[in-house]
User: Which sequence fits this backbone?
């Protein structure tokens, strides 16, 4: 982890109150309507926040909006040479953990780094909400129907929807389906690409 | 011609004006000052601070003035204000053993180091209305210089511990932070720190009734007042920059240690068990009730059968907060006519079918 | 009171109070709870409910949810018993005007956030809108089993026999299911949920609704959610399926025979008339007529 000096620390939101609300609201839409990309309007922060190295603006903004001193965060190895951890800790007061199973939030720099699901907190039958939220940066998304696109259905999806996430490993869907055996426990995902965000809660049915 | 009801906004604003008039009362009578409330309704102020969960006599007195003496309403005002305050840090645990004692009694012992100090108390007054108080202008009672008590006044519980007669109260393994139910919702079964916090903020009337029930057979723990002490304690913090403890002031508190039914086992010789109560200011009834209920709620922990409401965590803790109980009871004043309409419709329908002549082949 | 004076009564944004009253840390805590609630439709997420300037039992949960999601460009509608003008709705709306300065409306179609007590608006909602319900008792089984420690286990095991038996006993006893409001529903085929004390007449509106439905219980400290396009089924039996209320009368003001009607007593002989509970819906129909 790079620890910049205070004067070199990247900017966060210029107006944390209003910027956090705006970004949160879009994340709420993203999770309520899974598979529908939400383009974050980050112009509310003026001057703009300074996105850490290897970070997507949407992912950085999302975590900046949601995290505080009560949250534990795990960052993938792709952030090892970045100031992302220091930036997040400085602006939100969150605690960084090295054990992914302790994390409330997981930030993955590159989708192929995503560890197996069992590494994350899944919640339990009485408290299924005590599970991790994973923010995974992907190479691209595509909502057009195609051969290798997923078909989504379930809460938040009007009928069915197509989604392709570029950069995610091929066994993501089967791994996810296996973990759905333990529903309502499970991990909830946000995927980001630059300034865009897609939500995939545990409740969505995915067919590949 | 029926016109739909309008004017909710106006009605509310008018009600504010009427309320202001009611609060002030006869304008020819001098206005009550916050300073007067703070000084002369001090025990009300103490209750409001304790249940309001904020030590600030000025704010508590203001809340009492604003609520025209309705203490439950005043407690609500103070709690709502507290909810807006940022959390700056945490103090060290209060050292009640080092209290500057104004009053200290023990029912368990005739005499003990530090002595029985009666202090200011209504306990031995005759409850006869003092009509001389109807007049004002009487000279204020002379301030008596309290005799300097240099004698150490150890806590009774510490004295009993010399013989290991009382169960130890050691921190849990790892000395975890106390639970804070103002930040997270309580999960049942709740640990002792969550229970004590809930009881400290609890409505005094409810707690008193629960405590009373334990003395009348609804669970039974043979309590004795080990000690009640009232006085001021230092409030200390350890600032990160300094690395050592400093006092940031002192506050008056009332502490009650109840000594209860002894317990023993094959491996453990019998010891007395404990109940604990603490309140801001001079609040003995509250601290005692809290100590009795604390002990009752330890039933699970001490392997006792839970038979009575005072022993039931969920029952006590879910109904102890006056904001919740008052809010929900009084919410019945809100319009409920939509739901009532649904009930009316069903009852009318059922009454209609009740009134119908029964068929020959209807079964009972 | 003249209209222009009424307009002046509207409270202005108080700059001394943080936007939407709650401090930022509280908002984050509630926002995280809301996201988890959306991910687990119908499940009650515990949250650290705060004391609010309104009493517990009077909508603090709904207010905390709205306060956590609302932004300066939102348009807010607040209703109680379906009406914008009941004193409680007025009070809550004024609270938000004072703490956020947002534009408020009585028009269901113009609102981005609708906070409601005990009704779902008659006018169908659209994708992008958020309906925030005020919930007094989030636990649908509380009347049958008051201990949360127990009901939590029942939800975990999906053991809802208690509810079905209770409904069945009603049928056996009265010939009807006696719940006419706060009628329990099964969400996404998994959790039984209290829809809040809306009349059962409104239950069908919850099913596959394009809007996001959020539920806040401040006193009991629970938040739950029904995402858009989610299955919500009212409990019933094959031979006694769920049915909604019907009136003989129509609305005296707009003539609707499709909406929920309030009964108004006209005189001391018990003469009554019926008017729409939803003031915006009724008002628009009157204008259109």
Assistant:
């Amino acid at each position: 982890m790079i620890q910049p000096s205070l004067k070199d620390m990247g900017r966060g939101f210029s107006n944390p109150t209003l910027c956090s609300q705006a970004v949160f609201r879009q994340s709420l839409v993203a999770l309520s309507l899974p598979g529908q990309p939400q383009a974050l309007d980050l112009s509310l922060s003026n001057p703009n926040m300074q996105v850490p190295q290897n970070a997507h603006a949407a992912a950085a903004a999302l975590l900046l909006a949601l995290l505080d001193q009560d949250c534990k965060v795990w960052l993938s190895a792709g952030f090892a040479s970045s100031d992302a951890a220091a930036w997040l800790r400085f602006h939100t007061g969150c605690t960084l953990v090295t054990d992914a199973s302790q994390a409330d939030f997981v930030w993955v720099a590159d989708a192929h780094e995503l560890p197996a699901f069992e590494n994350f907190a899944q919640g339990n039958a009485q408290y299924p909400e005590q599970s991790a939220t994973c923010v995974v940066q992907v190479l691209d998304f595509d909502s057009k129907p195609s051969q290798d696109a997923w078909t989504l259905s379930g809460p938040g999806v009007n009928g069915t929807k197509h989604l392709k996430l570029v950069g995610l490993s091929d066994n993501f869907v089967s791994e996810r389906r296996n973990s759905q055996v333990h529903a309502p426990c499970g991990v909830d995902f946000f995927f980001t690409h630059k300034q865009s965000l897609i939500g995939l809660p545990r409740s969505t049915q995915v067919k590949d | 011609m029926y016109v739909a009801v309008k004017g909710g906004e106006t009605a509310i604003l008018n009600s504010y004006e009427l309320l202001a008039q009611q609060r002030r009362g006869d304008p020819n009578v001098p206005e009550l000052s916050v300073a007067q409330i703070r000084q002369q309704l001090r025990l009300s102020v103490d209750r409001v601070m304790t249940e309001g969960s904020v030590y600030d006599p000025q704010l508590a007195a203001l809340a009492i003035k604003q609520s025209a003496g309705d203490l439950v309403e005043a407690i609500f005002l103070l709690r709502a204000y507290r909810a807006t305050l940022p959390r700056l840090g945490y103090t060290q645990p209060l050292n009640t053993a080092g209290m500057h004692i104004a009053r200290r009694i023990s029912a368990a012992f005739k005499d003990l180091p530090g002595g029985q100090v009666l202090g200011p108390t209504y306990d031995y007054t005759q409850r006869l209305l003092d009509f001389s108080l109807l007049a004002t202008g009487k000279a204020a009672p002379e301030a008596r210089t309290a005799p300097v008590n240099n004698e150490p006044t150890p806590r009774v519980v510490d004295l009993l511990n010399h013989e290991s007669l009382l169960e130890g109260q050691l921190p849990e393994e790892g000395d975890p932070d106390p639970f804070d139910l103002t930040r997270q919702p309580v999960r049942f079964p709740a640990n002792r720190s969550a229970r004590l916090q809930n009881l400290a903020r609890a409505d005094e009337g409810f707690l008193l009734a629960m405590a009373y029930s334990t003395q009348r057979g609804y669970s039974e723990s043979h309590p004795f007042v080990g000690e009640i002490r009232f006085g001021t304690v230092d409030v200390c913090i350890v600032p990160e920059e300094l690395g050592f403890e400093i006092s940031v002031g002192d506050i008056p508190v009332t502490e009650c240690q109840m000594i209860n039914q002894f317990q023993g086992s094959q491996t453990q010789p019998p010891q007395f068990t404990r109940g604990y109560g603490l309140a801001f200011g001079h609040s003995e009834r509250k601290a005692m009730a809290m100590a009795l209920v604390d002990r009752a709620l330890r039933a699970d922990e001490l392997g006792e059968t839970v038979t009575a409401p005072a022993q039931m965590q969920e029952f006590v803790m879910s109904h102890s907060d006056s904001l919740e109980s008052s809010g929900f009871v009084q919410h019945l004043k809100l319009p409920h006519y939509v739901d009532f309409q649904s009930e009316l419709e069903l009852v009318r329908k059922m009454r209609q079918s009740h009134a119908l002549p029964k068929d020959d082949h209807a079964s009972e | 009171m003249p209209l222009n004076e009424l307009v002046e009564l509207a409270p202005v944004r108080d700059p001394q109070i943080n936007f939407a009253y709650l401090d930022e840390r509280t908002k984050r805590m509630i926002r995280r709870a809301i996201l988890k609630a959306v991910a687990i439709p119908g499940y009650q997420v515990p949250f650290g409910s705060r004391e609010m300037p309104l009493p517990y039992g009077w909508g603090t949960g709904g207010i905390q949810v709205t306060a956590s999601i609302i932004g300066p460009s939102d348009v807010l509608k607040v209703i109680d018993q379906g009406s914008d003008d009941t004193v409680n709705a007025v009070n809550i709306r004024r609270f938000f005007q004072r703490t956020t300065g947002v534009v408020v409306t009585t028009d269901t179609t113009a609102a981005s956030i609708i906070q409601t007590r005990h009704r779902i608006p008659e006018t169908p909602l659209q994708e992008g809108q958020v309906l925030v319900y005020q919930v007094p008792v989030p636990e649908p089984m509380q009347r049958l089993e008051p201990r949360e420690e127990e009901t939590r286990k029942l939800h975990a095991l999906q053991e809802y026999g208690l509810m079905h038996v209770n409904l069945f006993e009603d049928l056996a006893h009265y010939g009807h299911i006696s719940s006419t409001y706060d009628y329990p529903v099964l969400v996404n085929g998994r959790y039984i949920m209290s829809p809040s004390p809306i009349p059962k007449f409104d239950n069908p509106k919850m099913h596959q609704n394009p809007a996001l439905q959020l539920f806040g219980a401040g006193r009991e400290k629970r938040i739950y959610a029904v995402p858009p396009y989610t299955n919500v089924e009212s409990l019933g039996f094959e031979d006694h399926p769920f049915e909604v209320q019907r009136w003989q009368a129509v609305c005296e003001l707009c003539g609707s025979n499709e909406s929920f009607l309030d009964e108004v007593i006209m005189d001391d002989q018990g003469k009554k008339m019926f008017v729409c509970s939803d003031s915006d819906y009724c008002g628009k129909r009157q204008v259109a007529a």
